[in-house]
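About this split. The held-out portion is used to measure sequence recovery: a designer receives only the structure tokens and must propose an amino acid at every position. Recovery is the fraction of positions where the proposal matches the reference. Here is one held-out target exactly as it appears in the evaluation file.
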């Protein structure tokens, strides 16, 4: 398998978007949305503590060191301004590379607790906890603003190109780990973080979350990427095979694309996630997968500053709005389809699109086919 040489990876990194975080117009709009939440709740401050909320509100600032760790900062939003609390060993880098204008920085010793400084800043009034307004914050994140929409579109296109570049170079003898490592190299070279990398060859196609192994791809394989840059997460799945495919596979691929088409048709402004989920359940039965297929894997939902924000279920009542982004991922035995899309005034647009990848037109949208090598 041809893996990008270090020189190529470095060249790609040099070409990756280097926009500083904190688009002024978008930041002002986000601050107003939070102030509206404070008005509605009768509070004067809100404490943001999750990766999702922090990167959204700070408009793309990286608030992590370990991908598996907690954020290295907390943000107190009050009626006076924005106050970021971090550890003393993180402050210099955050100031130089991550902190947008207008955010006041406060530090605690590396061995102390962020809450120590937050309590002092909040004074006598206890700030709202993020979890107390989780639904309101989700609603504030859903209509994407112009700057973040543009960043998201670039990230999604980069992730789709990485998938194409890697899978076009595979053979039946390529291992799952080789696919995952090549994807990781491409994603990191593009200035992003590979949050999820999945791959299964023909012998492991029954697994819906297949962590890579040393197994060869064999005659057919799936790869999945969730890549984060500026806080935004692009999600996509692609398939490759090295023969003509069996009649059963071709039939199932067509039917899962039909399920997805029904989901897209139901995802319109004003719809509620619970109603879309009911359509997902009906679509599986309608296209021959059985009424219980939805129970075997999550179905996706709104996307953006989290892989799914939130995962849709029968109980989610969020309302779909214009400029919102989604990643639906219907799946069946040996099949899955997944792209990140955005609802715009012109309709649904696919963001994770690489024109080099084979596609078919379904209801005006280019939908990925299995790459046949």
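Reference sequence for scoring:
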């Amino acid at each position: 398998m041809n893996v990008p040489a270090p020189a190529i990876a470095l060249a790609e990194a040099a070409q990756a978007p280097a926009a500083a975080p904190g688009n002024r117009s978008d930041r002002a709009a986000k601050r107003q949305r939070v102030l509206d939440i404070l008005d509605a709740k009768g509070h004067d401050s809100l404490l943001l503590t999750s990766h999702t909320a922090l990167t959204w509100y700070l408009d793309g600032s990286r608030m992590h060191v370990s991908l598996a760790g907690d954020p290295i900062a907390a943000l107190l939003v009050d009626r006076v301004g924005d106050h970021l609390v971090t550890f003393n060993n993180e402050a210099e880098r955050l100031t130089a590379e991550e902190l947008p204008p207008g955010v006041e920085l406060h530090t605690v010793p590396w061995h102390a607790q962020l809450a120590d400084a937050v309590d002092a800043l909040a004074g006598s009034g206890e700030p709202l906890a993020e979890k107390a307004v989780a639904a309101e914050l989700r609603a504030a994140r859903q209509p994407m603003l112009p700057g973040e929409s543009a960043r998201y579109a670039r990230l999604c296109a980069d992730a789709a190109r990485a998938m194409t570049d890697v899978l076009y170079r595979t053979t039946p003898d390529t291992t799952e780990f080789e696919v995952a490592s090549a994807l990781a190299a491409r994603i990191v070279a593009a200035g992003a973080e590979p949050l999820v990398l999945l791959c299964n060859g023909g012998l492991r196609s029954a697994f819906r979350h297949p962590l890579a192994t040393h197994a060869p791809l064999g005659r057919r394989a799936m790869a999945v990427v969730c890549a984060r840059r500026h806080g935004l997460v692009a999600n996509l799945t692609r398939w490759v095979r090295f023969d003509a495919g069996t009649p059963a596979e071709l039939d199932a691929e067509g039917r899962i694309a039909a399920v997805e088409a029904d989901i897209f048709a139901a995802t319109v402004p004003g719809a509620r996630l619970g109603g879309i989920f009911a359509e997902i359940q009906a679509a599986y039965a309608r296209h021959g997968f059985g009424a219980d297929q939805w129970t075997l894997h999550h179905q996706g939902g709104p996307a953006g500053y989290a892989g799914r924000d939130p995962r849709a279920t029968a109980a989610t009542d969020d309302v779909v709005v214009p400029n919102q982004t989604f990643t639906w991922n219907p799946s069946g035995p040996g099949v899955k389809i997944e792209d990140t899309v955005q609802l715009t005034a012109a309709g649904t647009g696919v963001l994770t699109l690489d024109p080099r990848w084979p596609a078919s037109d379904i209801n005006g949208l280019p939908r990925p086919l299995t790459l046949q090598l």
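Annotator remark: Confidence is low (pLDDT under 50) at residues 1-19.
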